[in-house]
Amino acid sequence: MYQLVLRYGETSWTAALLPVSVDGMIAVASMFLLVDSRQGRRSGLLPWTPLVLGSAASLAASVAVAEPSVVGRLTAVWPSCALIGAYEPLMRQIRRTAVMKTGRDNAVLV
């Protein structure tokens, strides 16, 4: 994402902040989903929208700056895919641990 932003004429500090803002948006949305889950609430559209948009933006930026070949593009998107693929199982494990500690399906943290 940094390289893509530089390519379109932004300053280096702007290029450095954009990936942080996208990753931060993904992290905050994920934490919001986790808190809702632990409190037994269904999450609405608000946390899912930035999570999906941020993930898509990260993947799209990786493809945009990748070498224009199948291997180059797959290699470029692998870190984002690995993060997305590893993060959700981690969140599920945290939710299960909370359920096991409380003995209830709707674990509430105080």
UniProtKB/TrEMBL annotation:
Q: Which residues cross the membrane?
A: 12-33, 45-64, 70-87
Q: Please provide the record's keywords in A-Z order.
A: Membrane, Transmembrane, Transmembrane helix
Q: Specify the superkingdom.
A: Bacteria
Q: Which Pfam families match?
A: DUF2637 (PF10935)
Name the InterPro entries for this protein: DUF2637
What protein name applies here? DUF2637 domain-containing protein
**Organism per entry:** Actinomadura graeca
- Show the taxonomic lineage: Bacteria, Bacillati, Actinomycetota, Actinomycetes, Streptosporangiales
